[in-house]
Design brief:
Blueprint lengths: L3 E8 L6 E8 L1 H4 L7 E7 L5 E6 L5 E6 L6 E5 L5 E5 L7 E6 L5 E6 L3 E6 L5 E6 L5 E6 L5 E6 L2 E6 L4 E7 L5 E6 L5 E6 L3 E6 L5 E6 L5 E6 L5 E6 L3 E6 L5 E6 L5 E6 L5 E6 L2 E6 L4 E6 L6 E6 L5 E6 L3 E6 L6
Antiparallel strand pairs: 1-2, 3-30, 4-5, 5-6, 6-7, 8-9, 9-10, 10-11, 12-13, 13-14, 14-15, 16-17, 17-18, 18-19, 20-21, 21-22, 22-23, 24-25, 25-26, 26-27, 28-29, 29-30
Length: about 325
Amino acid sequence: MAAMTFPVTIWQGFSGKTADAAVEATNSQLKTDFRYPQLIYTLQGHGGTVKSLAFSPDSKILASGGADNEGVIRLWNLTTGNRLGTIRKAHKTAVESLVISPDGQTLASCSSDYTINLWNLKNQKFKRSFVGHSTNVLSLAVSPDNQVLISGGMDGIRLWDLPQQRPLATLASFGNLIHTLAVSPDGQTLASGDYQGVVKLWSLVSEKLTRAYVGHTDIVTAVAFTPNGEHLITASRDRTIKIWNIYTGELVRTLKGHNNWVNAIAIHPDGKTLASAGKDGIKLWDWTTGELINTLSGHTDWISAIAFSPNGQMLASGSFDKQIKVWGITPKGN
């Protein structure tokens, strides 16, 4: 396969210096060990904290949203590193969360302006708004079958019919101050993390609460299911990451290593590697053993969002420094 050449910003080791250069990017360049990641792109353009990142299912597009004054969403071409499109005034205030539907057709965004907006990912055209929350909408999740969009905020959890673009149900109301959401790989279970430090599991079939995990001592900032659906990983402002057995409710392990809030987590498609982020950079873990594999530096402020690409070849991070960094990173031995 012929090599591609394009301009990027390269991370020079871990010295804190960057250099603009034209580099030759090949498939082998992306197949790096978790212990030796490479910075492929530094993406700039946001005017505020980058609060949310979402990859398209084919790993070719990255969507980013944040605390820009105009509620801007930006789309990035990950083959070239160039900006693919910009949705200006996507919301009246900050974009809190983004998700792309599994079929790659719809981009959903939510905001502290109480609304959820749907966009055509291909042409960035507005499709419709979901209105029903009475406070900030902080998190979105979508079912694997493209049927249900779930939103969480300070007033609870709501379910929306994505194909028909209409409200379905209110899963939880006031008293559930939701900060983060995730749907299980089989689409049957929803996990939520709240401001009381409680993690809850909800059946999306019966729309009932099925289990609550109590262990964090501060706001739960992120929740994520492992690809096989057997474990739930949670992060908190209490500086810890916890791994829970979905079937037994057992706390399997607590990961400690961050020196401040853990703002975001992401699980690699290999099912073993976990990325976590906060003020002290990105940490890569083998969550099955508790081993800390690596710590990535590069941002100059708190990291607020991270996401692995579905093909497992990239890790994207967004920060209070208004930048997005995209790392080439794949499992050892590939």
